[in-house]
Design brief:
Layout: H1 3-15, H2 18-25, H3 29-43, H4 59-85, E1 91-96, H5 105-115, E2 120-125, H6 128-137, E3 142-145, E4 154-169, E5 180-181, E6 190-193, H7 202-212, E7 219-222, H8 226-234, E8 240-243, E9 254-259, E10 265-273, H9 279-294, E11 302-304
Bound molecules: benzoic acid (BEZ).
Protein name: Transcriptional regulator CatR
Pfam family, one: LysR_substrate
Keywords: DNA-binding, Transcription, Transcription regulation
C-alpha cells in the first residue's frame, strides 16, 4: 500500500462519488476506480458498500478513513517541518483570527519583518478551528486564536488574557448609568455575538459568560464577524461584548464600557505543531514577550499541553 492509495481513498470517501473524487485529484475516473479496487484487494477487505449511491463507507472503511486522514496529516507535517529544519527556505506562515488585528498583531508582524528580513512571512485570516487543521496540514506554522481547542499534536501558549468590554450605541441610557457595567445589566438588551460559524468560537465564550452566571440575554443576534457586530451596535440593534483591544478602533458612533468582573477575559493563544521547535517560532515568541514588556502589557506566560 502506498501513500497514493490513501490520498485516493480519502478523496473518494469525502466526495462519496468517483467522478467528483477524480476531478478533485485531477485524474481520470477509470484509473481511480482501479486503484481503489487494488487497495481493497491488498487489504482483503471491502471499504465501500457495493452499489450504494452516494457511496457509503463500510464499518471497516470508516476505521480505515479515520487513520488514513491522520497519516496524511502527519505526512504533510513531516514535509513542511523537514523543509524548515533543513533551512531550504526560511518562511513562516501565520494564521490569525480577525480580532487580533486590533491588538498587537500588526506591530508584531512589522517588528518580525524588520528583525528577520530574510524570512518570507505570510498572513492568513482564519478561525481558531481552521488554524488547528492548517497547522497539521502544514499550511501555516503558527496560529493566533482565542479558543482553547485540545489536540495532542498542537502546543498552545496562552499569551495573555484580554479583558472583555461592552460596545453599545452612542446615547444609549446605559451610557448615563454606572461607570462600569455588570453582565446582569445587559440581559434585557439584544446581544450581538460573532462569529456565527465555525463553532466553537469567541461567540461561545461570550454565551458561556452569561450561562456561568445563570443569566440569559433577552435576544441573541449571531453575525459573521466583529465589524458587522460593531456596525449593528452603531445602528442601535443591540450590544456586543468585545475584547478590550477593539476599543482602539475608536468609532465615534459606538461607546465602550468596562465590565465589573475581572474574570471576564478572552485569551490570546499562540498555537504551533507540538514538535516544531524551529528558530522562527522561538524568535516570534520572544519578540511577543519583548513587546509586552515594552508596552507594559500584563501577560501570563504558560504552556498548555495539547492534552
Ligand atoms: C496581542 O494583542 O497580545 C497579540 C495579538 C496577536 C498575536 C499575538 C499577540
Amino acid at each position: 500500500m502506498e501513500l497514493r492509495h490513501l490520498r485516493y481513498f480519502v478523496a473518494v470517501a469525502e466526495e462519496r462519488n468517483f467522478t467528483r473524487a477524480a476531478q478533485r485529484l485531477h485524474i481520470a475516473q477509470p484509473p481511480l476506480s482501479r486503484q481503489i479496487q487494488q487497495l481493497e484487494e491488498t487489504l482483503a477487505v471491502q471499504l465501500f458498500e457495493r452499489n450504494s449511491r452516494p457511496l457509503k463507507l463500510t464499518e471497516t472503511g470508516k476505521f480505515f478513513y479515520s487513520h488514513a486522514v491522520q497519516l496524511l496529516a502527519q505526512t504533510a507535517e513531516l514535509e513542511s517541518m523537514t523543509r524548515r529544519v533543513g533551512n531550504i527556505e526560511r518562511s513562516l506562515s501565520v494564521g490569525f483570527v480577525g480580532s487580533t488585528l486590533y491588538g498587537l498583531l500588526p506591530k508584531i508582524i512589522r517588528r518580525f519583518r524588520d528583525e528577520n528580513p530574510t524570512v518570507e512571512l505570510s498572513l492568513h485570516e482564519m478561525s481558531t478551528t481552521d488554524q488547528i487543521r492548517a497547522l497539521k496540514d502544514g499550511r501555516i506554522d503558527v496560529g493566533f486564536g482565542r479558543i482553547r481547542l485540545e489536540d495532542a499534536n498542537i502546543r498552545r501558549v496562552v499569551l495573555r488574557e484580554e479583558k472583555m468590554i461592552v460596545a453599545f450605541p452612542l446615547g444609549h441610557p446605559l451610557s448615563l448609568s454606572k461607570p462600569v457595567l455588570a453582565l446582569r445589566d445587559l440581559v434585557n438588551e439584544t446581544l450581538i455575538i460573532y462569529p456565527k460559524t465555525p463553532r466553537p468560537s469567541y461567540a461561545d465564550q461570550v454565551l458561556a459568560a452569561f450561562q456561568d452566571r445563570g443569566l440569559k440575554p433577552r435576544r441573541i443576534y449571531e453575525v459573521r464577524e466583529l465589524q458587522i457586530a460593531l456596525g449593528l451596535v452603531a445602528a442601535g440593534e443591540g450590544m456586543s461584548i468585545v475584547p478590550s483591544s477593539v476599543y482602539g478602533l475608536k468609532r465615534d458612533d459606538v461607546n465602550y464600557k468596562e465590565l465589573d468582573d475581572p474574570t471576564l477575559v478572552s485569551p490570546i493563544i499562540m498555537s504551533t505543531r507540538m514538535l516544531d521547535e524551529s528558530r522562527d517560532i522561538r524568535e516570534m515568541l520572544e519578540l511577543i514577550y519583548r513587546l509586552y514588556e515594552e508596552e507594559k502589557i500584563p501577560y501570563t506566560p504558560r504552556v498548555d499541553r495539547g492534552r
